[in-house]
Amino acid sequence: MLPKVFVVCLLELIAARSVLGWNHVSRAKFENIVNEEPLALVAFVAPWTEPSKALEAEWLAATARTKTALLSIDCTAEPDLCREQGVFSYPAIRVFDGSKKLRRYKGSRKASAIVSFLNRATLPTISTLDSKNITDFKSLDEVVVIAYIPEEQTALESAFTELASRNHDKFTFGIVTDKLLAQAENVQLPSVVVHKPREGEQEVLSGPSGIEALGKFLETASAPLIGEFTRRNELKYMKAGKSLVYYFAHKPQDLDNYREALKPLAKKFKEYLNFVTVDAVEYRHMLPALGLKDSGFPALAVFNPMYGQAFPHDQKEITPKVVESFVMDIVQGKVPPLGAGGGGENTKHTEL
C-alpha cells in the first residue's frame, strides 16, 4: 500500500498538470466570449509546434495576471475557425474588442508584454496628467510617452494625438498642459519625453514638431537597449545598418540576468550594435547559420547583416567583460567570420 503522503503528492501533481497546460475552448465558447466581452485576446495554436510550445507557459502566466479574457484555440481541432481568422502559421494572436475589424497582436509573446498590452487597452489613447498622477503614470509601462504642451499650441497637440492614435497598442501616452507642472518636472515647453522606467532612461524632444518628426523620434527613443528578436521585428533589425549581438537562452532568469548585466555595454555600443535576446527554443533553426551548436545554452554570436557574416562565441562564458572583448577582437580582425551560409570557409574579414 502506498504511503498517504505519496498519494497526496501524486494527486496534487495530477491536478497541477491539468491546470498548467493549454485550456482550449470550442468554437461555441469562443464566439460567445468574443461577442460578450469588451476585450479578449485569443491565441490560435498548433500544440505540436515548437513556437506554440514556447508560448504556452507565457500565455498561462499572463492569464494568471489579468482579468481580461485570454483564450486559446487548437487549430488542429478547429481548422475552419482558424482559417476564418486568417491564421496560416502558428501561433497567431488576435485581438477582439467588439469591432468587426481583424486585429493582429504584434507585440512580444512574453507574459509581461501581453499584460502590458491589455493594460494599455483599458486606458484612453492619451491620459491627462496632473501633479497627483504623473509620478505613477511614468512607470505604468515599459515605454511611457508624455507631451508637455501649452493649451495654445493646438497644432503640436494635434500631431501628438495622431502619434498616440497610431501607437496606442505599443506604448502608453499622456499629456501635460499645466505650465507649473512642466516647470516642476524640469521640462521645457513644448517637449515630448519618452520614459523607459525599466532601463532608468529617458529621451527628450524639445520644440514644436510635426507628425513625421515625432514618429522618427519615438521610433528611436523607444527602442530598448537590449530588445527581443522575433519574426515580427527581424526585418527592422536587418535594415537598421548595425551588426547584431544575439544572445540565445530559454530560461527567463538567464534572459533577465543578461539584459541587466549587459545594459551598460549595450548603451556604450548602441550607435554601432544592436544587442538582442532570442528564444532558443522558438528560434533554434537560426543556430547553424550562426555557427552555434544546439547543445547548450546560453549561447552568443555576432552577425553582420550587410555582409552576411557570423561570428560565433565559444559559449564557455558570457559576461560583459567577455562580450566586450569578443566584439573588440572582431573589430580588430582577430576573429574570422564563418561566412554568409554559416559553417563554410572563412571569408575576408570586414568591420562590424
Task: Describe this protein's structure.
With 352 residues, this protein is an alpha/beta fold. The chain folds into three domains: 105 residues, Glutaredoxin, CATH 3.40.30; 99 residues, Glutaredoxin, CATH 3.40.30.10; 106 residues, Glutaredoxin. Helix content is 36%, strand content 20%. Helix 3 packs across helix 5.
CATH class of the largest domain: Alpha Beta
Give, in spatial order, the strands making up the sheet with the most strands: 5-7-6-8-9
Q: What structural category do the secondary elements indicate?
A: alpha/beta
Overall structural domain count: 3
Tally of alpha and pi helices = 12
Pfam families: Thioredoxin, Thioredoxin_6
GO biological process, one term: protein folding
Function: Participates in the folding of proteins containing disulfide bonds, may be involved in glycosylation, prolyl hydroxylation and triglyceride transfer.
Organism: Hyaloscypha hepaticicola
SSE layout and pairings?
Blueprint: H1 4-19, H2 27-36, E1 40-45, H3 50-64, E2 69-74, H4 79-84, E3 92-96, E4 103-104, H5 111-121, E5 127-128, H6 134-137, E6 144-148, H7 154-167, E7 172-176, H8 179-184, E8 191-196, E9 201-206, H9 211-222, E10 226-228, H10 234-238, E11 243-249, H11 252-268, E12 273-279, E13 299-304, E14 309-312, H12 320-331
Parallel strand pairs: 1-2, 5-7, 6-7, 10-12, 11-12
Antiparallel strand pairs: 1-3, 3-4, 6-8, 8-9, 11-13, 13-14
Question: Tags for this entry?
Answer:
352 residues; alpha/beta; Glutaredoxin; five-stranded mixed beta sheet; disordered C terminus
